[in-house]
C-alpha cells in the first residue's frame, strides 16, 4: 500500500501527462524512480525496457507505459528464480544472515511458525554466539513457536553450535534447521571465515548443507539494503533474500533493485512484527498489488 501510494502513484502521474513519449517523460520517470528507491542501475534498465516498448510500438502514449512497466517488473522479479528447495527426506539446513537490527531473529521465529504450520518439524540453532542477548531472544521465539533450540554459552564457537545442531536435527529426522548467525559485517574477513566454517561443519553432518542461505534486509533502509546485500554476497553464496519491514515503508521499490543487482530471488517479505507477518514472495501478486 505504502509503495503503491508513493512510487506507483508518482509514476502514473508522470506518464499520464504525456500524449506522446518524449525525452522529458524519460527524465521525469527517472526522477520518480530514483526517489522511489529503485536505484540507478535498475532505473536505467527499466527505462531501456520502456524505450524498446516505444520502438516496438507497444507503447504509443503515456497510458501504455503502466501495463508495460508492470509486465517488465514481473519479468524482472521472476527471472531465474529456482523454486525453493523442498524437503527430500533429509534435514534442510537454512542459514539466516544479515546485520543486526534488520529482523533476523524475528524472521527465524516467523519461519519456524510457517514451517510448523506446514506440518514440518523445525529446530533452531543459536549460531550468533557473539551478541549477548541473541541466544536468549531466539529462545523466546523457540518457546513461542514450540520448537527445540540448540545453543551454547555466549562467546562459544559458532561452528560448534552448528555441529551439535546438525547432529541433533539429523538424529531426530528434523525437516528444517534454521541457523541464526552473527551480523558483524564490520569484520568482514572474520565473518566470512566463521560462516565458511559453519557451512563446512554443517555439511559434515548433513550432505549438501546449508541448502539455503537467506540474507535478511530491512526495506526501510532503501538503497542501503542493496549495498549491504552486495557486501554479504561477497562473503557467502546467497540463495535468497528476506525483505523485512515492508509494512512500514514506501521504499518497496528496493525489491527491484535487490533482484536486479544481486540476481538473487526475494523469497519472503516481512510485513509486521507478529509471528504470522511473513509472506512467501510472489512477484505477480506483488506487481498486481502495486498496479491494481
Ligand atoms: P535482528 O537484530 O536482526 O535479530 O532483529 P530483530 O529480529 O530483533 O528485529 C529488530 C526489530 O525489527 C524488532 O523490533 C522487530 O519487531 C522488528 N521487525 C522485524 N521484522 C519486522 C517486519 O517485517 N515489520 C516490522 N514492522 N517490524 C519488524
TrEMBL record:
GO biological process, one term: SRP-dependent cotranslational protein targeting to membrane
Compartments reported by the entry: Cell membrane; Cytoplasm
Sites where the protein binds GTP: 98-105, 180-184, 244-247
Domain of life: Bacteria
One Gene Ontology molecular-function label: GTP binding
Membrane disposition: Peripheral membrane protein
Alphabetic keyword roster: Cell membrane, Cytoplasm, GTP-binding, Hydrolase, Membrane, Nucleotide-binding, Receptor
Record-annotated AAA+ ATPase domain positions: 90-248
Nucleotide-binding in keyword set: yes
Keyword Cytoplasm: yes
Residue ranges annotated for the Signal recognition particle SRP54 helical bundle domain, each copy included: 1-77
Enzyme Commission (EC) number: 3.6.5.4
Catalytic activity line of the entry: GTP + H2O = GDP + phosphate + H(+)
Function text: Involved in targeting and insertion of nascent membrane proteins into the cytoplasmic membrane. Acts as a receptor for the complex formed by the signal recognition particle (SRP) and the ribosome-nascent chain (RNC).
Stated family: Belongs to the GTP-binding SRP family. FtsY subfamily.
Assembly and oligomerization: Part of the signal recognition particle protein translocation system, which is composed of SRP and FtsY.
Protein name: Signal recognition particle receptor FtsY
Gene name as annotated: ftsY
Amino acid at each position: 500500500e505504502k509503495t503503491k501510494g508513493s512510487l506507483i502513484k508518482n509514476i502514473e502521474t508522470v506518464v499520464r501527462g504525456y500524449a506522446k513519449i518524449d525525452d522529458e517523460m524519460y527524465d521525469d520517470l527517472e526522477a520518480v524512480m530514483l526517489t522511489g528507491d529503485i536505484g540507478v542501475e535498475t532505473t536505467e534498465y527499466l527505462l531501456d525496457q520502456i524505450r524498446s516498448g516505444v520502438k516496438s510500438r507497444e507503447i504509443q502514449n503515456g497510458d501504455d507505459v503502466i501495463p508495460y512497466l508492470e509486465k517488465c517488473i514481473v519479468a524482472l522479479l521472476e527471472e531465474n528464480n529456482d523454486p525453493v528447495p523442498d524437503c527430500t527426506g533429509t534435514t534442510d539446513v537454512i542459514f539466516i544472515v544479515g546485520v543486526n537490527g534488520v529482523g533476523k531473529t524475528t524472521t527465524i521465529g516467523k519461519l519456524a511458525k510457517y514451517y510448523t504450520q506446514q506440518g514440518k518439524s523445525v529446530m533452531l540453532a543459536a549460531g550468533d554466539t557473539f551478541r549477548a542477548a541473541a541466544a536468549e531472544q531466539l529462545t523466546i521465539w523457540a518457546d513461542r513457536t514450540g520448537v527445540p533450540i540448540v545453543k551454547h554459552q555466549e562467546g562459544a564457537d559458532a561452528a560448534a553450535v552448528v555441529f551439535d545442531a546438525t547432529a541433533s536435527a539429523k538424529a531426530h529426522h528434523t525437516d528444517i534447521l534454521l541457523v541464526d548467525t552473527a551480523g558483524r559485517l564490520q569484520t568482514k574477513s572474520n565473518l566470512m571465515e566463521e560462516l565458511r566454517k559453519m557451512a563446512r561443519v554443517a555439511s559434515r553432518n548433513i550432505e549438501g548443507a546449508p541448502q539455503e542461505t537467506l540474507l535478511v534486509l530491512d526495506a526501510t533502509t532503501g538503497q542501503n539494503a542493496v549495498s549491504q546485500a552486495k557486501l554479504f554476497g561477497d562473503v557467502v553464496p546467497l540463495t535468497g533474500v528476506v525483505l523485512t519491514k515492508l509494512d512500514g515503508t514506501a521504499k518497496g521499490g528496493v525489491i527491484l533493485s535487490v533482484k536486479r543487482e544481486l540476481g538473487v530471488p526475494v523469497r519472503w517479505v516481512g510485513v509486521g512484527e507478529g509471528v504470522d507477518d511473513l509472506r512467501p514472495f510472489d512477484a505477480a501478486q506483488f506487481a498486481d498489488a502495486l498496479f491494481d
